[in-house]
Amino acid sequence: MLTRLTTYLTYAFVFVYPLFFLPITSDAYDFQKTSLLLVFLVLYLLLSLTDSIIKGKVEIYINSTTVFLFLLAGLSLVSAFIQSPNPILALTNPLSTSLLLMLPFFHAGMLGQKERDKEMYLNLLLLSGSLISLYAIVNFSLNIETGLFIPSGSILLSAIFIGVLLIVSIPKTIHSVFNAFTDNEDNFYSKRSVGFLITTLILLGGISVLLIRLKTDAAPILLPFSIGWEIFLTSIATVKSVILGFGPSNFSSAFTLLKPLEFNTTVYADVLFTSSSSYLLTLGTENGLLSVILYVFILVKTISLLFAKTDLEPFERRVAAIAGLCSLILLSVLPGSTTGLLTCILLLSLSSYPKPFTVFHLGKKDSMRFFLLVIPFALSALIFLGLSRVYLSEVSFKKSADLLAQGKGSDAYNKEKEAISFNPYIDRYHIAFSQTNLALANSLARKKDLDQKDRENIPILVRQSIDQAQIAVKLNRTSLPAWDNLSNIYLALTNFVIGSEKWAEESLRQKIQLDPINPSHHLSLALFYKTQDKPQDAEKEFEEALRLKTNDARIQYQYGLLLIDQKKYQEAFKHLSIALGLVSPGSENETLILNTIKGIEEYTKNNEGINSNTNKTESINSQEPSNLNVSPTSPPIPSSIPTIEMKRK
Questions:
Q1: What global pTM score does this model have?
Q2: CATH of domain 495-632
Q3: Closest-CA residue to 601 (of 586, 589, 616)
Q4: What is 261-326 written as a DSSP string?
Q5: Under-70 pLDDT residues of the chain
Q6: Residue 339: how many other CB atoms lie within 10 Å
Q7: Domain ranges for the chain
């Protein structure tokens, strides 16, 4: 009874996981699928163990691929605690240590399945893929807007998933049609061939639609492979990084620190990538060269399966092995997803011959059996408790974002506070909470008639904003968004909080240390020095920004304005002329720059005082478009905020 219940549970999971998503968390796809996998594994373990205790025999199925997966999971776990600035992120983020820890258990569980069940799993997977394809086809045909995601994930990752399923579906279709023609007396193969033929046609239609969308409205933004490869090679420059990498869920830190200078010349220069060009490069950068070697071992093992000889009919297993091998290759050159990784591991397990690695025969003592049952149930309870807190925190955080979009700041404040109470170790929660506190303080300060309660709440909200921003930095010291948020808060409070300019400068410099070749950080620091009346320091930062990227109209224009303030008109004219050549003809930016240049030309021609031109330039500067005005500050807090003293945390 329990054996069949376990099988039906697995049937349901294999069919559901590609389709499963819930838009109640910020990540409605990978996070939800990873959570579903954890729930499935716990239930599968409990049912299997209970069944084994009743039978008095425990069978453990593993092969060399399972061993490699366990080694990969162990390596990622060690890296999370040694290399990652925040191990909790690695243990809660999808496509990180959490998923790698579950994959070997999933592989081992699927190894022990019977041959008829393995075929059913393949068919259920094809059925699930067919439904996703139909969804894509219908929405495309009816011109229904679906955004960049469908149930299986993004358009690109869904196309990869459907492509892998076609590698299963096409051989099965050919095999069924061949059997139908050679065995005319058996109507089973005729019906089967029709079913597989329809499935293949639907999958072909689905992938065609997805490929069209990738060429039109859903073109993905991917890190160029050459850049990802260079980052990976640079990341393994030390013995420690060879073994452990930069740490799981920490690719963005490796990217900002190690990206080459030529990245500034690409169209993605302002993009912060959180994953590399492919899943394998992300894995290697985060977990080290050893993880790549283990991945290659799995690849080689899969190739050997294609030449393995068994006494059973090898067709289903060989099809699964070919599809699994193709999936591994695709993950080597393209990004990965929870759906893609689970499909890959499922195919690898289905391609193996089911033979128990070891068998434990339980004694007749009830105490021993009770002991084996209690511990897994206790561990499962702890896992569910931890998962529930992580899950509820994500739900609360998503609700807060929705409330902010509706303009309900106070309600969003409470939901963000609730998310932090469930899981206080996620830096992005604290970043959002700090921004909400500052926005609420700003809103209160703009009120015409402030009562006593509002006057008391404003400094409290400002202090909470600073504290939450500092907590975010402490939780993840290599997070560029955390430091960016902290610097913006300090800059916004420069005129209202004693000592904030000092901390603003330090946080801006920390951003440069984390992202050294990004000219925008030097530009922000230059503009800060300009507001602090430090023209020489500002000039140095402008020069460094231009060294990193000369063809940036923002930098050239702002540098020109600084030089005008210093009455260096010839140099200012040179930089403004360069900026003029970098903006679109006929745009507002062109008009803005031309007016500034005209002011310089009139002054130098008439050799008169520059008061009128200076005032004109300052007026232009205050009205300049956003793509030329790179202000390092958030909207200033009104002067009604009381001045408070800053203290180092």
A1: 0.87
A2: 1.25.40.10
A3: 616
A4: GGGGGSTTTT---SS-SSHHHHHHHHH-HHHHHHHHHHHHHHHHHTT---SS--HHHHHHHHHHHH
A5: 183-190, 308-314, 354-370, 372, 607-649
A6: 27
A7: 76-96+223-351, 129-218, 495-632
